[in-house]
Queue: 4 jobs
Job 1
Amino acid sequence: MPGIVRKNFDSADEVRPFEDGKGELDLVNTDRGPVGRAVFEPGWQWSRHVKPLAGTDSCQAAHAGYVVSGRMKVVMDDGTEDEVGPGDFTAIEPGHDAWVLGDEPCVMLDWVGFGDYAVSA
């Protein structure tokens, strides 16, 4: 493994578009696993724009990420909810829905849950 690894999301190893043009996931692969940058456009909601790809009732990915810009609401299957915004670190367990709040895209980085995210089941 090299001492320094540099990758750029603008030259991602893989790009996964969301349904209806509501954003995309840019994925870079590293020796330590994939890292993703997702741009969720206003109006994006997991249950409308990723669920058709995932084929599950709610998002079953665990996430550990950082919100670069925009805001998102997350609602767990048990009803627990929270909002995340710029500068927030968030850890989200499997079993949730989420959607963009407001009219600004939500940009998030994730070190855990984007490897298998937005992939056809």
Job 2
Amino acid sequence: MTILDLTSHPVAAKYAVLVDVGYLYAAAGEVLLGAKERKEYRVSADELIQALQKHAETRIHGELLRIYWYDAARDRVPTVDQRVIAQLPWVKVRLGNLNARGQQKGVDAQIRSDLEALARHHAVSDTILLAGDEDMVPAVEAAQAYGVRIHLWGVEPPYGTNQAERLVWESDTVEIISADFLRSYFSRAPVPVPAAPAAPSPAQVFAARTPAAIKPKAPVGQITKLGPSRPRVEEVGEHVAQKWILTRGRDNIRDLLPGPILPTVIDTELLIEAEKELGHSLRPYPEARVWLRDGFWARVYREFEIGVGVSSK
């Protein structure tokens, strides 16, 4: 990684980091894994963002305004990863549309608009732009006209270059992020393993389960609060999974695999959805949370034909 000393500014800078996720992921996937499509790999996006933030702090002496994370999603419905990223501090997720061919639409326009607006309103003195498209050039020139310094970051290419030559020319400084820097945040996606013919179906597993869990005896004089039944909670978990598959898309739900652990944000959404279905809270019943996840994963595993899985009791 080329080291550029930008810490000698006489006045502390205020800066933003604008990341074209499509470029970052595609370039990193190619150089690290030889991958051509995003579904071929997984990204520890939250850790990657933190690493980029820390790296920016070593390059620019000043205050971070925020990190803008430009990505795309089918019908602009955020994926699991995007919903988790949106919860991170100082991170703004901006979504374009992903068409049927997997092409991003509207992302470049959002980057250009934000870059120009930040400069026009004097919100920043410096901007780190992690991108490679020549379409960024007019926005870079406009931002510079307002006095903003543009620091272009790129991903190490396997050969040649993966950034437009003119974009490189117009930027104030240029740095290449090495493959070694990115390596620990990218991994090859697991290949789903079909269930063995003899494996029981989710329906068979449900049939074999006891209809209700044995609850500990309540202290003398205390009224035991009757909780929801296990079959009903598992049924609701399956229903929520089915609804998410239909509304958020199979590719979105596929991001949760191999399971059975759910990101905290998604686990909370599952609980909220289930409580709406049931019409009452599950918070007082820890065992019901387990049953809910069992039902959810049973439906997800059935959808992707990778066997029956249940969360740990």
Job 3
Amino acid sequence: MKAAPFAYVRPTRLEDAVNELAGSDGGGKVLAGGQSLVPVLAMRLARPEKLVDITTVEGLDQLRSTGDSLEVAAMVRQRRVEHDRATDSVPLLRMALPWVGHRELRSRGTVCGSLAHADPAAEIPAVAACLNARITLTSPRGTRQVPAREFFTGAMTTALGSEDILTAIRFPVATDGEGFGFAEIARRHGDFALAGVAVRVAVSGERVREATLTAFGVSDRPVTRDVSTELASAVSASGQDGVRLAARLPEPLADIAQGMVDTDGDAHGSRDYRRRLFVTLSGRELAKAHDRALRGINGDNP
């Protein structure tokens, strides 16, 4: 199939892009990397009246550290973020990016585009939710920031209004005493995840201060849960032995899975199968993140 007819504009100023989108009366779509939008157009699952191409808008290609955060603007490609040393300050993002599609797609796809598309099995939205990154939306009424955990409202549904352009995201940088973990299971590398987890653990000395677990591919959006109590209890019972810790976590995580994994399942995996994947991945990555937090080490995810 081919896309239905549409108008096309390519502004060079953000103000003009915002006005073009607002002038479409809800019939416009923003085009950035196009790795999600173009296939949807080709299958006529979306029929926008106008495409607002932001690839030449000034200022939307910035990737910069701002002290306590890493700011990724709307036109920054995933491949660039994957290989830029600035991303070392956000270890969880660096762990997740190699799992996003294939490198050819990451060379065109944008970080912000993945957020706006909001696929429930996507890696970048899960990282944003786990870290509760702040998403910047720009409209004719000005600029506002939305916490990532409030941004995703359903399957491919977000807090984006019909006049909003997602112009940037700010990921908080890692601090001392934090450790991270990321893993997913898919039929083949680059396929949609059957289940995946993003994990952040913060410690004070040897005490668990905070533990956050975000699951993706198991519901209609990234699902985040504070598991500080469960992790602290398992650490208390197992000491600092990572193997024993990972062995103790499945029991409490099995109860958590009942609420977090609510997909109906499909031909590739039932709800119960995805719950088992979630429990296994969560236990392993929580143990790894805890160990990394204690040692102050966050290398590439093995």
Job 4
Amino acid sequence: MTSGSLDFHLFKGRSLIPWKVRYKIVQGLASALLYLHEECVLHRDIKASNIMLDSTFNAKLGDFGLARLVDHEKGSQTTLLAGTLGYIAPECHRTGKASKDSDVYSFGIVVLEIACGRRSIEPTYDDQQASLVAWIWEAYGNQMLLDVADEKLSKDFNVKEMEYLLLVGLWCAHPSRSMRPSIRQAIQVLNFEAAPPNLSSKMPVRNYDDTPSTSIITISEPGSLSITMPR
């Protein structure tokens, strides 16, 4: 993958990824995640540094070291907390369990990073902007959603695509797992096959009484997988 990982370009200034390519990367990542979930596999570590790019910026979702098979019949299985700070769904910090919902959360964080060109957590920022999700949700509530778009793009983006991308990112990164979409629902919005979500104007507080997802992980050895995203 000659262009390295996505984070080198978004956060380390290796190159400026134009808007059309960013949107294609998101759609490709969503398709890869849909394939995994339909095959009963949880990735558990979706993040910008695990998205690899070739010379023409076609992407692959890599690093399946934490991936696990989903077992729908055995019920909840405990496991150690896995993932990367900033991409781990809130419920995982409490339960240590991963699910399709937590993969969708991580996907949502990456989507927001691609749209805004900044990391999910920026400790050097003030309290109101340190959390990417909280910052974007505040802008959405103030009807200033497009103001969070990556300044490096110099407003050279499709407005409808940017709006839908940010809304899907917030939807997927909802604090309560029961309020997140499936990856298929997210894809339908990204492809303009469904209306964007109607989110609350203020970032919701996590509901600790969420109904657990039926998709849980078993403690099994990860397989060796490589998902090529569509061009």
